[in-house]
Design goal:
By secondary structure, the protein is an alpha/beta fold. The chain contains two helices and four strands. The chain is 12% helix and 21% strand. Strands 2-1-3-4 form a four-stranded mixed β-sheet, with no helix packed on it.
Amino acid sequence: MAAKTVAEKLLVKPGGTVWISAGEHRPLVGPLPEGADYVEDLGEAAVGCSSPPTRPRPAACWTGSATG
C-alpha cells in the first residue's frame, strides 16, 4: 500500500480548494487530486494550512467548508 500524500491526509477532495499561508509550502502538500487547486483567499478554501514566518513548514492545518 502506497503512503498517503499530505493532500490525502488533509482530505483534499477532487475539485476542492486549498489555501496555504506561505506559497513556498505548497510543494509540501504534494500533488492535489484532479481538479483541486490552490486559492489566494482563505474564505474560498475547503482546506487551509497556516504557519508563522519562522517555521519551515505549516504548523496548523484544518478542513472545513468554503463559504466563498
